[in-house]
Each structure stands twice: as C-alpha cells, then as structure tokens.
Amino acid sequence: MESLLRAGKETIEEVYQRHVVMLYRVAYSFMKNGPDAEDMVQEAFVRLLHSGMTFQSPEHEKAWLIVTARNVCKNELARARRREVPLEEAPAHYVPELSDTLLALRSLPEKYRLPLYLYYYEGYSTAETAEMLGKPAATVVSCRRGGATEAFARLNMYFQMTNMPLVSSQYWNQVHGNTPDEVRQDAEGLQTMRVLARNMTFLMKSIELGKEKYGLPEKEEVVRTHFIR
User: Fold this and answer.
1) Spatial distance between the Cα atoms of 77 and 54, rounded to a whole number of angstroms
2) Are residues 151 and 104 in contact, defined by beta-carbon separation less than 8 angstroms?
3) 98-128 pLDDT, tens digit each
4) CA 80, 68, 126: angle at the middle one, nearest 5?
5) Measured between alpha carbons, how far is 69 from 45 in angstroms, rounded to an integer?
6) Quick one: CA dihedral 11, 15, 21, 25, positive or negative?
C-alpha cells in the first residue's frame, strides 16, 4: 500500500486533523503541560512529513505516530534533565479536553502512562501494545495492572480528602473488554459491579435514614498545619 500522504490522496493537514487530539494526550502524559505537549505534537508531525513513510494501513499510521510522539517526548525530557532546566508550566493556547482520569494518568510514573493509555483509551490489545512499545507482553500486563492500581488509588484519594462517603466492592470497580460482547465474558468484573450497585443502594438508603434520625455530621472549619516555620 502506498503512503497515505501521497499526492492526490491525503495532505498532511488531513492526517494532522485525524490524529492531533490523540497525540496531544500522549504528549501531555509525558510533558505534563500544554505548551511543551504542543511542541512535541508538532515535532512528531514534522518527522512524519520528512520521513517518506509508507504505511500498510491506517492503524499502522496511527501506531507510527504514537511511537514517534513518545520518542520525541522522552528525548526532550532527557535533554531538559541534562540542561538541568525545568520544563515550564504555562497556559496552552490549544488544549483538548482532558478528563479527570487522564489528568490522574499524567501523574503516574512514566512506565505506566503509555501502556495504560494505549490499552484503555485507544483500544489496543496487550499484544498490539507490546509490539508498538517493543516490550514483552508480560511486561505490558504488569505495567497495566500496576498503573491501574495506582491510578485507582489516586482518584479515590481526592474523595477521601473531601468528606465523601466511598462505596466499595470486592475488587476494582471496572470490567474488561473492548466491546460489549467481551465485557459480558468478564464474569468477575460483572459480579464486582453488581456487588458495587447493591452496596451503593444500601449506603444511599442508610444515609437517608440517618439524616431523618440523626441529621448530617457536624462540619468543622478546615485547619491547615504549616510545617515550614
């Protein structure tokens, strides 16, 4: 198959529009701020423009761009460390919407970010993710599991610090699968969600009964301790 950028077929602008948001999310997970993420996205597309690449399929095109974006981010971070110059936090003039989950993903150790993003957001299988990253499938599974656990803990941390009642189940509150049919095969995940629903219903009813009989807990004004004296 000829390159998707060949004359008369597609322009770099069309490829850019198709992949820019996805690449921005990948870059943002590494760079942790908008302006640097934008620079890395632009660099990835510049490399595409000058590469003369011939893609076998649209998926090949997408995978090549993801790996290229990862590489330019890691190279830039390495250069910044050698210069001992911190990458600046500044508002971006182009920032695609980032969910709370993606923002939590950004805070994870680097080894977890891309495997989690590729699997959960882009829908790549373990084998496809391993091939793209040049790692054994077992390593990808390990990173995905470790990263998911840490992301789950960080998301729950915000609720724990804001007086929110938390509903638990018997395992992680999630199901696995890229399609509804695959999800229906995850018996453990479906059971976890059923238990979660029952526990949530029980807690909501208990809160309502408690409000009628005892009222809501008394709130105190927040006191902060300053450890730098």
Assistant:
1) 29
2) yes
3) 566 666 666 777 777 777 777 766 777 777 7
4) 115
5) 9
6) negative
